[in-house]
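Our consortium's second objective concerns turning raw sequence data into structural hypotheses that experimental partners can test. To show how far this objective has progressed, the report includes one record in full. It was chosen at random from the queue rather than selected for favorable results. The single chain below, 577 residues long, was entered without modification.
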Amino acid sequence: MASALSHLENAVFQFKFVVNFLRLYSDVLKCPKKKAVSVMDVGCGSGRTLLEHLLPALPTDFQELIGVDKYDAMIEYCGKLEVDPRVSFRQLDIQTQELPKEFENRFDLITSFFCFHYVTDFSQALRNMHKMLKPGGELLFIQPTNSNPLYLCYRELSKIDKWRSLFKEFDKYTLRFRGKNRDAELKEYFKRNGFTLDSYLFLTDFMEIEAKHFINTFKALDGFRDDIPVDEQDEYLKAFHECFSIIEDVDFVNEESLERKTKFSIEFLSVHARKDEETELEPINSIYNNESSRALCAILMANALKYYKNAVYHLDTVGRIYTKYMKSTNLPNIPLSVLDIGTGSGRIFSEVMVPMLPKNVKEIVGSDMDEEMMEFCRSMNKDSKITFEKLNIEKDEVPKHLENRFHLLTSSYCFTYVRNLRQAFSNSSKLLKPNGELINLFQFKTNALYSTYKEMSKMKKWKAYTSEFADYTTHFSGPNPEIELKKILKDSGLALLDYEFDYDHAFEMSKREVLEVYQSLDHKLVSLQGNQQKEFLEDFLSIFCELTEIDFRDEKTLDDVIHFTFPTVSMHARKEK
């Protein structure tokens, strides 16, 4: 946190929304059925919202109000304020795995204002608040649901070589409850974590403030700036302003523009939830018999990673391969149509592929078989040339409106997970115009996820869920994968122009990171519930460790860096006339 004083000065733009929120839930805040209530405010920051708005809204006979924040600097600042003796401040990361015993079953009400969109493990945060509330205790919070501007700024900064290494973790600040079924998703999410939703509201509102106040607020929340040497701070802040200009389409670099009032729109989620009277949640790590597996299980149960692939480890590889093959394309000098197959969460698509396309591209279509992925991509997209469609590249027939439509097809790692490689390439050919070109790369020798499913299909209790993988084999089972690839492409009407089989392609990754990548791809786990899910994880990990010959269970070694091999084939092909 760059500065408690900076946060204090720039929290003002939030007050309009805080005041309206507190007015909306004034009856809850007054706790009419309770006396001497205990209250916690999560993410109190500099304490300004707590002292100026929350405190006056509480009943006068409240027993205690504790503000907590993960940053020591904030708590140190708040500790110097002159406040009601019943008000205190404590350091607490709401995502902690080690919740202080003194907080358990203590509070009648927990509030939070503009905090949870900076939480990477929201499920763990909810579980902790569940533990801290008394039976029947209530939770009130408000947070933005649309693209977090700070997250998007980090995404832009990560594209700059100078700052790339600083933002390895930025992509964990993900959007929640944004799909077409977000209402059902929201209710199920809270139910799973021991809460009943009394009410909630998705509301778009506007604020008109000077641009400098808007950006200064997010600068105050920038936790990465403290890691930058003093002599590079000015250069970083300039890049920060430039990236915000890209995100908000407002000139945050020009001094005159900073003084102008600008209208910004933000969608909010406000929630009033209640801890179920008799609910006791099982510990996340209860599927293991030993204490050392706690961190591992926390990773595997992280909800955000279930919906999209963390592609950070592939960016450099894909960038290198696309650069090589894009230089050798022979695309016509006319308005071009481009399709990306297996777009997923859109990270490789938006950060690597799209910026490399020629200027005469008129339309870019991202596709994936998962509609939730497409909804996520749509929510992030601001380019009118880009659209997203659901598409299963292994279907017997491709949609008629996509046939013979594209000059260029791209795909990054999607074909690793197709079961019928021949059908996927045949469909790719149908999507291309005559002389249209294809750039594709995927893992070809092994797939630890599907290999694990194959072994689980031999187990009676999981056969119904994994039987489709009983006959799973890798794409090229013969001794000469080059010959197999050429034959598949030729039979699909594609001429292979260039290719490379990289048998030694590998990443230097921690064991923790390997698990995060594979768990984000585990599409079987989400179809299970309760104890079944826990048993599935236990068996999955046992087999996964055996197949990879790596021990992922020891908490002490989870951060050890290992050499994890992903044999990869890349290719450039052209559809024959």
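The partners drew two points from this record. Confidence is low (pLDDT under 50) at residues 282-309. Residues 287 and 531 are 8 Å apart (CA to CA). Both points have been shared with the crystallography group to help prioritize constructs.
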